[in-house]
């Protein structure tokens, strides 16, 4: 599957996932774009993001919050193959995991809710 197809499929999965969330969570996401990228860039890796990272909630700079969620689709695709799951399952769980961080949950809280 090429990257353009992955993006199209990930957009559909994300839209379906967001529809299932409570209104207050969807409202919190109104100003938070979701970006679909192939892999972390060299700059990302230089800033400490592991090359195999699946997703990231970026709260933006303190002075002018411009939060976003980033999903790295080639890593998600590889994770699905390695874990014996589907691309759909991995996009969904990664998106929900990053939404958990948006809501202020740390890694333990995200994991306790089954989103790790």
From TrEMBL:
**Domain of life of the native organism:** Bacteria
Among the GO molecular function terms of this UniProt record, one is: metallopeptidase activity
Record InterPro entries: Zincin_1, Zincin_1_sf
Keyword list, A-Z: Hydrolase, Metalloprotease, Protease
Could you provide one GO biological process annotation from this protein's UniProt record?
A: proteolysis
Keyword Protease: yes or no? Answer: yes
Name this polypeptide is given: Predicted Zn-dependent protease, minimal metalloprotease (MMP)-like domain
């Amino acid at each position: 599957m090429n990257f353009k197809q992955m993006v199209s499929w990930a957009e559909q999965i994300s839209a379906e996932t967001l529809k299932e969330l409570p209104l207050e969570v969807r409202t919190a996401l109104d100003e938070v774009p979701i970006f679909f990228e192939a892999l972390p860039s060299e700059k990302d890796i230089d800033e400490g993001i592991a090359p195999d990272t699946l997703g990231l909630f970026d709260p933006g700079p303190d002075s002018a919050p411009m939060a976003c969620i980033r999903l790295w689709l080639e890593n998600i695709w590889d994770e699905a193959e390695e874990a014996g799951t589907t691309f759909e399952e991995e996009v969904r769980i990664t998106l929900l995991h990053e939404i958990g961080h948006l809501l202020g949950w740390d890694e333990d809280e995200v994991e306790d809710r089954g989103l790790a």
